[in-house]
Design goal:
The complex is a heterodimer of chains A (about 150) and B (about 750). By secondary structure, chain A is mostly beta strands. Chain A has 2 domains: about 70 residues, no CATH class; about 70 residues. Chain A has a 6-stranded mixed sheet with strand order 8-7-6-11-10-9. About 0% of the residues of chain B have low confidence. Chain B has a 6-stranded mixed sheet with strand order 13-16-17-10-18-19, sandwiched between helices. In chain B, strands 1-2-3-4 form a 4-stranded antiparallel sheet. In chain B, strands 9-8-11-12 form a 4-stranded antiparallel sheet, covered by helices on one side. In chain B, helix 7 runs parallel beside helix 16. Helix content of chain B is about 60%, strand content about 15%. The longest helix of chain B is centred in the first third of the chain and has 54 residues. Chain B has about 750 residues and is an alpha+beta fold. Chain B is elongated, with a radius of gyration of 37 Å. In chain B, helix 24 links the parallel strand 16 and strand 17. Classes of the chains: A mainly beta (about 150), B alpha+beta (about 750). Chains A and B meet through strand 3, helix 1, strand 6 and strand 8 of A and helix 1, strand 5, strand 6, strand 7 and helix 4 of B.
């Protein structure tokens, strides 16, 4: 029976097999790669299907999967760093992102890690931040970030 | 600074739902909010500003432009899923998914509270959260702050408060501190004298001698007096230095000792709930390293910095008194030098940060590779690992090189600045010395004294430059320590003060319910009676509430509802210590302390006579293996008893329980992690132990419970079956029968 995927009205991925609909999630096996195989998982986080990159899904299914993957790959984009303030075993960050200013804290042992051209950083709550490549950062951001890039 | 401000400081998030929204939602629901969370992402993952709340039978969402509400009774399921930077809550009704919400991960804790309450209301619409569940505002704040507090214990900005609390610990030693302060003052004053003596030697002896204003005899006498004064100054100065160090450094030691004692004693008063939230490693460092840092502050920070400040002030006064014009030449550059030192220490912090990171990478590499050395060798990857280490080592050295570079550039510059000050003293002082300056004359002695004082400027400046670092470290450590001391003991252990009388072991659970977080119940209305001397087997799948039930009986936690009675007395009215001495526990992972076998067996009754120790050891099948060891009962067993096998450790713990002679015994998976032969030895030991006591035993292997008088089956926190082994096996479709059949099939498969 044909399998297809749709992005439903309440913003969730649905797997359609005949008349049956099931809310699922798509999880990239290799999140860093655009062409990664996808594990389709149910609400108990068990795999229902492994969709390979070469899969012959209809365009609407591909678009629905891509939409769900956007959530899986969602991270907070940082445009510039306004302030990094070390205080009592914490580092308090003030950043400006695409969605406006944001403040977060990291442990002192939490360092920005190289990711693609830029860097990624995880805060105390587990949110992932993407910092642009070094040459795309303004001078102040570079100055603030430099001590943390050893 | 309050928690509210900390939340805003750390996250920029409001400390609670805006009051206008709250009023709107409460008006909509007709009841107060019970739990809420902020939703900061919309379905397109764009920034969003809404609040999701539960109030009575309603789920409500306050959006910037409107408010929506749904009856909780409509929903059948609440599911949470996570992506790297977001959390989603999906609510389904009878027909399937109905509505979804999104937020970044910082709101995960608050959203989980909302979800738990929704789930509890789906299961039981009349569900009332226990008192343990915080009010909506406190719960929201706690959920948001918890991950930060796990990284760091307390919020910033409490330095003043922390220092004043530290001072309370200093108070009992104020006399000693005062003595140290006087010694420091005297030491500083005396340190200035040798340079002044030099000036006196030149101006009052040598110059008058050369000008024949002083005879040789008089000059010799005066000189001898000066040498004596110098010797006395040195002697007195070193005596005062000793007094200063002994007094103030020991105050640091005493304060740290008192803090360590209070923290450790307080830790022992706290309930298990505290320890389940805090990693042991972190607690160890609070008792050890953090208290050390405070010594650093009191012993080094307070003493050295105050002496340095005093030294700079005293020197400035001395110089101005000797010659105010030349004194200003010396003093005016000091603020600039202090700023340079401050700037340098900031730069060094940045460099140390990079070096620290590279050093962490190097140490992580070693601690990752060495435990896996067998794998490395098996896969012939030693060369690769050595190369990886080499690269990390070089990277670390590169950063340390930068640090040395910065030091070696800064110090010559600082010294050059001091030399420039000296040059200025020369340039300004020489014409006056010669008598060609319009600013008056200067004696050679005063001039030389000034030159000598310049040498004394370096050390105090350097010490003051370090104060910020030492103070930051100490206040952060003190905060971590005070967090433990501020943890409420009463909430964990109840308020029972009545000493428990000798117990018979008649236990009754009356409608006992319990939840760890105040919302999600792990035990629901348990009713159970255990007669004195009865052996009860607790059976059920993982997560059914078996361990929670025995933890309540041992009073590691307090029941939310209902009560537990022993011999007719509610256990929460009994003083914990006197009650626990009559409870014995044999756990799956027996914990033995570093010490001799004798000390370990006697742990619960250190005064027990040897005859009783040997009898307990024989009953627990310990005596024979102990006597085969060269040092017998004096054999020192390593940390946590690792020098013994698993079965031996378990039997020692059983001997310990037998010697304690408890009226109530709890066996929590005592034989689950050992092989069949060892299990038999332990079982023999247990048979001795359980005789004549009320016993509650948990075991995964149901076959080990066939001696139980009755079996109690738990499922999802509810008591579902009670009966003898035979009765429960005869019950077709019963939970015990299902578990029993499942285990038998597994055993057959393994046997095949």
């Amino acid at each position: 029976m044909d399998v297809s995927y749709r992005w439903n009205a309440i913003g969730y991925l649905e797997r359609l097999v005949g008349d049956e609909r099931q809310t699922v999630r798509a999880k990239a096996c290799l999140p860093g790669r655009e062409d990664s195989p996808l594990s389709i998982r149910d609400s108990k986080d068990e795999e229902i299907e492994l969709v390979s990159a070469e899969s012959t899904l209809d365009p609407e299914s591909r678009s629905a999967l891509a939409r769900d993957l956007r959530e899986q790959r969602f991270s907070i984009r940082v445009e510039r760093i306004v302030e990094i303030h070390p205080e009592n075993d914490l580092r308090i960050w003030h950043v400006m992102g695409l969605e406006g200013p944001r403040r977060f804290v990291t442990a002192l042992e939490e360092w920005p890690l190289p990711r693609g051209d830029g860097y990624s950083l995880r805060d105390a709550w587990g949110d992932l931040y993407e910092i642009p490549a070094w040459d795309r950062l303004d001078e102040r951001s570079q100055k603030l970030l430099w001590p943390l890039l050893g | 600074m309050s928690t509210m401000n900390s939340l805003e400081e750390f996250s920029g998030e409001a400390a609670r739902i805006p009051s206008t929204l709250r009023r709107e939602l409460e008006a909509e629901a007709g009841v107060p909010l019970e739990a809420y969370a902020r939703l900061d992402l919309d379905a397109d993952l764009k920034s969003y500003d809404a609040w999701l709340a539960v109030a009575g039978p309603w789920l409500l969402e306050a959006r910037p432009s409107s408010t929506r509400k749904w009856p909780l009774a409509d929903f059948r399921k609440a599911e949470e899923s996570e992506a790297p930077s977001l959390v989603r809550l999906l609510l389904s009704d009878a027909e399937g998914p109905r509505i979804g919400f999104r937020a970044t991960k910082r709101h995960r804790g608050a959203l989980a509270r909302v979800r738990s309450l929704i789930e509890a209301r789906i299961e039981d619409p009349r569900f009332v959260p226990s008192a343990k569940m915080k009010d909506a505002d406190a719960g929201y704040r706690e959920a948001l702050l918890k991950p930060v507090l796990e990284v760091q214990s307390l919020s910033k900005g409490e330095r003043g408060g922390v220092l004043s609390r530290l001072l309370k610990y200093v108070k009992p030693y104020r006399r000693r501190l005062l003595l140290g302060g006087v010694a420091a003052f005297g030491f500083t004053g005396l340190s200035l004298l040798p340079s002044w003596y030099t000036g006196v030697l030149l101006d009052r002896i040598l110059k008058p001698l050369q000008e024949n204003r002083l005879g040789i005899e008089e000059a010799t006498r005066f000189g001898a007096w000066l040498v004596g004064a110098l010797a006395a100054t040195f002697l007195a100065r070193e005596l005062l230095a000793w007094l200063k160090l002994v007094s103030i450094a020991m105050v640091g030691e005493y304060v740290v000792r008192d803090l360590r004692r209070d923290v450790y004693a307080h830790l022992h008063k706290l309930g298990l709930a505290f320890f389940s939230k805090k990693p042991t490693g972190g607690l160890v460092s609070r008792v050890t390293s953090d208290t050390d840092r405070i010594w650093d502050f009191i012993g080094y920070g307070v003493v050295e910095v105050s002496v340095s400040c005093l030294m700079l002030v005293a020197m400035s006064v001395m110089l101005l008194c000797l010659d105010w014009r030349l004194g200003l030449v010396m003093i005016l550059p000091v603020p600039f030098l202090l700023y340079a030192l401050f700037w340098h220490s900031r730069r060094m912090e940045r460099l140390f940060s990079r070096a620290w990171r590279r050093w962490s990478r190097l140490t992580a590499l070693v601690s990752d590779a060495l435990p896996g050395i067998r794998v490395i060798k098996a896969f012939n990857r030693s060369e690769h690992e050595v190369a990886r280490f080499g690269a990390a080592n070089d990277a670390a050295i590169e950063e340390f090189g930068r640090i040395h570079d910065a030091w070696t550039r800064f110090w010559p510059l600082l010294m050059m600045s001091l030399h420039l000050t000296v040059l200025a003293v020369w340039a300004f002082g020489l014409p006056r010395l010669i008598g060609t300056s319009p600013w008056g004359t200067l004696t050679p002695g005063t001039f030389v004294s000034f030159l000598m004082y310049t040498g004394l400027f370096v050390q105090p400046l350097e010490t003051i430059g370090q104060i910020s670092r030492v103070m930051n470290r100490a206040t952060s450590s003190a905060q971590r320590i005070f967090e433990i001391l501020d943890t409420d003991v009463g909430s964990d252990l109840g308020t029972g003060r009545r000493t428990a009388p000798p117990l018979q072991g008649h236990i009754r659970f009356e409608n006992v319910s319990f939840s760890y977080d105040g919302i999600r119940r792990v035990l629901h209305g348990i009713d159970l009676e255990i007669r004195p001397g009865e052996l009860i087997g607790l059976v059920g799948p993982s997560g059914s509430g078996k361990s929670t039930l025995v933890n309540l009986l041992a009073r590691f936690y307090e029941a939310d509802a209902g009560r537990i009675l022993v011999d007719g007395q509610p256990i929460d009215e009994l003083e914990v210590g006197s009650y626990r001495t009559q409870i014995g526990m044999v756990l799956q992972e027996p914990y033995l302390f570093h010490g001799t076998l004798l000390e370990n067996i006697r742990y619960g009754r250190p005064e027990a006579p040897l005859a009783e120790v040997f009898a307990a050891a024989k009953a627990a099948r310990v005596h024979d293996f102990v006597m085969r060891l060269p040092m017998g009962y004096e054999t020192v067993i390593g940390e946590r008893g690792h020098t013994l096998s698993g079965g031996e450790r378990q039997r020692v713990s059983i001997a310990r329980a037998i010697l304690q002679n408890p009226r109530i015994l709890i066996l929590d998976e005592a034989t689950s992690s050992v092989d069949v032969e060892t299990e038999k030895a332990i079982q023999d030991a247990l048979n001795e132990l359980v005789r004549g006591r009320s016993v509650v035993a948990i075991a995964h292997r149901l076959s080990t419970l066939d001696r139980a008088d009755r079996l109690v089956v738990l499922k999802n926190g509810r008591l579902v079956e009670v009966g003898t082994h035979r009765e429960l096996l005869a019950k077709e479709g019963g939970e015990f029968k299902k578990l029993h059949d499942l285990q038998r099939r597994q055993a057959e498969i393994v046997g095949v």
